[in-house]
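Example with several molecule types.
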Amino acid sequence: MAQYARGSAVAVIRLRNPPVNALSLPVLQALEDGLKKADADPSVKAVMICGENGKFSAGADIRGFSSPKRFGGALGPIVSLIDSSEKPVVAAIEGVALGGGLEVALGCHYRIAHVKESFKWSSSMGLPEVTIGLLPGAEGTQRLPRLIGVPAALDMITTGKHIPATEALKLGLVDEIVEENTIEAAIRLANKVIGQPLGPRRLSLKQVPRLPNMEAFLEEALVKVKRQARGCLAPELCFQAVRAAAESPFAAGVRRERELFQVLLSSGQAQALQYAFFAERAVRRWATPGGACWSSAAPQPVRRAAVIGLGTMGRGIVTSLVKANIPLVALEQDLENLNKGRKAVMLLLEREAMKMEGGAQTLDFHNPARLQFTVDFDVLHDVDLVIEAVFENMALKKEIFHKLSKICKPGALLCTNTSALNIDEIASATNRPQQVIGTHFFSPAHVMRLLEIIYGRHTSPTAIATAMQLAKALKKVGVVVGNCFGFVGNRMMFPYVQQAVFLLEEGSRPETVDQVLEDFGFKIGPFRMSDLAGLDVGWRSRKDQGLTGPSLPAGTPARQRHGQRYSPLPDLLCEQGRFGQKTARGWYLYERVGGRTATPDPWLHNFLSQYRDNHGIQTRFIDQEEILERCLFSLINEGFAILAEGIASGPEHLDVIYINGYGWPKHRGGPMFYASTVGLPRVLAKLQKYSEAHPDVPGLRPSAFLKKLVAVGNPPLKEWMSYLSQQSSKL
Ligand code: CAA
Ligand code: NAI
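Resulting structure tokens for the full complex:
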């Protein structure tokens, strides 16, 4: 828990709680005992606190985080105890010092940190409580501004970012950084400072460094924090706590910190964000829904990769691979497209290099041994993994996979970035279906964290493990799902977008629908999103599916396909050349081709009215509740169908996909978590109501699994899947 040992004059307290020395209540108790022991022992002249196994501490134990209130209450007095010690206390920071871990270090009189870039646990520090919906509740919001000033503290506390030891030294967060043995260096420092006055080292006695324009700075910072938070409470309350540090004496600031902490605890957002933290970790332990757990399969090494197609997606994927230090070949269909693609990739890489320490040298992308451009498929004979990102066209993809299976070495993994197509059909064009897998990146691929990994009927565990390993190497969240049209993310998106368009038919406007969903917390509403991605993308796909105009059998009603409601509105806009930002017109008007500023378009409003008149639709006022519920509940309903079909092995998978790939507000925990907070009986009742009003819309018809869960008494989310396996025959 925490090991106490006495050297000559320096007592050592070593935090011990693998894997990250989290501060559970027993660890805190042992820390307190150690401090008291050192205080009572006259031969001890100084204390050094460190963590076992090269990690200081990742903060409160959030594995059993049922009682953060108790934790906050327990750690604060210990931090004060350290601060008020008559004997100097030195923190030796190796690995992580996060949250409560950093708060312990802030109680200490001196901090020394380890620096060595190649060291696996090279030290990094931060107060990430905001990311789990809380604020640093053990005086961190009061101590950090006193140590490094309000601007830097505000940045760290409201974003939760981790900073490396070198930056910590620049900010004054640590007194020294050392490359050699940190523990020995900390003991040397402790010996050196024995007998020196501790008053100036106690942060509780220090004044917050004044800024000449503190009030103006804070006002400006608040606007920024609110803008970035988009409905998430924690960043703003973190701000309020730091403001209290800037404006009040230490004790009053601590009281304010505690009050604000309580508000966050009872907000519900903290629970959602902590759920999201664990969901992200749970999806790493992937399994196929059939029950066979494959996450123990060993991945194959990827020493050299290839990307085919350097369009929107291929460029981002290449950038991502280069950033992960994976040598690769980038291939295009002809020299013209190759040159275009190469130019775009180089631009992206230059930009990425500028953000990195060491710049272009670190990325080394001008070295052809690391990044080779070609139009020659034969160059791919020795790569370990290929990612295909050509047009979304089954015939083309099959042609490419057939070629790859002839050229690539036997063990090479063949990945497709298709956003919806059948993985089994693509695999059927190869002589190695077990090595074919979907790796669905999200745009922009070098930025978005999600990698949806789709296994087909024959995909081997090794292939899945390799794709998961690739996600990790690219610093992405890999989520393993089954094969169906649109997989998980896009399949759930279809009914959501469909509802948004139906709402326009019935009387709403794009800006109204977008606003409701953005107020809910989405980064971008469905119509702004559609303009950004390009309306032509979906149009092409609907044409391929035979859903649009000319290919329809004669007599097909304009607003129906296969006996179901269908809105031709997006097709009609495309026929007018309105593809979104790329044509300066779509659901909105833009200032120029490629412009980003969406303005409501009177032409579109008029067009919608005429459309309703032509189809005899009476325009009605649709309130925010209906907009929100029809869009969200239809998406959630599809999620239940996906779970029932075994396409994903748990609701966490769907939630991680939505948070990391579709801009779902993390403080609402993902769509399935959100459904559990709304209450499944309510979701069901609303779907039933809307479905009765729109019987020709299958997306609103409640899924059998949702009905089952309500019938068995609305069990908590973590139990849902057990009802599926017990009751599946009845679904
Ligand atoms: N408590 C308990 N377990 C933790 C933990 C914590 N604070 N942090 C990480 N773990 C666990 C993970 O769940 C994981 O366990 P499994 O292997 O069983 O899944 C294991 O430690 C390793 O963690 P990661 O897989 O995440 O490893 P990583 O190398 O990718 O990242 C890390 C390590 C940077 C520490 C990351 O885990 C992290 O960011 N942890 C959370 C840190 C945090 O938010 N601390 C603040 C807590 S709140 C607080 O301290 C104060 C308060 O006022 C309440
Ligand atoms: P794109 O049209 O921007 O680029 C496709 C590229 O493939 C073009 O540069 C083209 O020259 C190249 N190409 C075509 N045939 C080729 C061949 N035979 N050999 C080599 N290169 C060839 O398309 P985009 O948007 O990059 O999409 C690629 C794939 O990624 C599609 O399957 C798409 O569904 C999927 N996807 C797209 C997303 C997006 O937001 N654009 C998101 C996620 C997946």
